[in-house]
Amino acid sequence: MAAAEPKPPARTDAARRLARGCWSAFWDYETPKVIVVKNRRLGVVYRAVQLLILLYFVWYVFIVQKSYQDSETGPESSVITKVKGITFSEHKVWDVEEYVKPPEGGSVFSIITRIEVTPSQTLGTCPESMRVSNATCDSDEDCVAGQLDMLGNGLRTGRCVPYYQGSAKTCEVSGWCPVEDGASVSQFLGKMAPNFTILIKNSIHYPKFQFSKGNIEHRKDGYLKRCTFDEVSDLYCPIFKLGFIVEQAGENFTELAHTGGVIGVIINWDCDLDLSASKCNPKYSFRRLDPKHVPASSGYNFRFAKYYKINGSATRTLIKAYGIRIDVIVHGQAGKFSLIPTIINLATALTSIGVGSFLCDWILLTFMNKHKVYSRKKFDKMVAPPEQTAEPELSTSEPSRQDSTFTDPRGLAQL
């Protein structure tokens, strides 16, 4: 009788089974089990969630946000400005060279509408302004010689002298005299200012799409010499009256001219480059930028001086100017169809539709009366059998427990 061949060790069998399982998992196709639940209310919830997700992606993501496009924000921009007009005050006529600061024609400039002039200031000694803290005095003992107040107008000499008017006294300072509030004269330039015209020339460029455009119409018939801006009929005539800008910003011109303020001219270039270039048009808006309701920082003013000599002595005219500062701000966004964002957003939309299944499964497994029945049908629980030296043959006469789970009609009827 031949000797029996030795059986391979159990570890070798386990390794072979693992290798066969890995090889099978690599080539086999797996699909989830689908269970149909006959529940009308749950079906309505499921379709409603799917419909809402679909409407969100179709209407908001693709139509409103245009997520199928590649986009670029913040165009490269150039702004050139030019102001024209003449006005007058109580003492003289003012032209554009005098009331526009700075005169270079950049995106930020000021139009002077009121001034306080302190003429003929010379280097000497004079009473300090009463607006300076600790400037008032009763005797020389109240004034410290050599003291320099950073908010004052000069170096204190140590003397207490009478003020420019009234019976009050202030400490004497060495500097440009008389000080500003001692002899200033106010002049209003805003009578003709609403009729000043401002040309705002703007050119933009989107480097990603190699797209450029300007806000002036290309015509050779002297169009710019006789037009002013109108949003409907003259969109490409960027010549604005100062009064129109202030009115569009919702401000009172007379009040603004006296206190000063900052007005923003916002030019927005939102361009859909899937359409023709003629559909890419500038949109103008106007608003006040400085906080007018905060008394401590309301208004806008600045100082400058004009220097000259009288009889060989250095003399200057100090001017405190109130005006309307114009800030031209350009921004925008351009978009053009691109395959990559389209595929990404389509995939996101299709994946998000599965939220309806997740929500309905959660309702079934948590709140439905027969949620335990649904749980048994949805999830199959299998326990691995203990390792055996010889695998017994499966009997075909009695169906397995797992098969009965799939073919049991009572459980499906209970759903």
Automatic annotation (TrEMBL):
Residues that, per the record, bind ATP: K82, V83, K84, T197, N301, F302, R303, K320
Region span, Disordered: 382-415
Membrane-protein topology: Multi-pass membrane protein
GO BP annotations listed: calcium ion transmembrane transport; response to ATP
Disulfide bridge partners, by residue number: C126-C177, C137-C160, C143-C171, C227-C237, C271-C280
Transmembrane segments: 44-62, 346-368
UniProt main location, coarse: membrane
Glycosylation sites: N195
Biased composition annotated in UniProt, kind: Polar residues: 394-407
Catalysed reaction, written as an equation: Ca(2+)(in) = Ca(2+)(out); Na(+)(in) = Na(+)(out); K(+)(in) = K(+)(out)
GO cellular component: plasma membrane; postsynapse; receptor complex
GO molecular function terms attached to this record: ATP binding; extracellularly ATP-gated monoatomic cation channel activity; purinergic nucleotide receptor activity
Subcellular location: Cell membrane; Membrane
Family: Belongs to the P2X receptor family.
Subunit details: Homotrimer and heterotrimer; functional P2XRs are organized as homomeric and heteromeric trimers. Homotrimer. Forms heterotrimer with P2RX1. Forms heterotrimer with P2RX6. Forms heterotrimer with P2RX3.
Protein's UniProt name: P2X purinoceptor
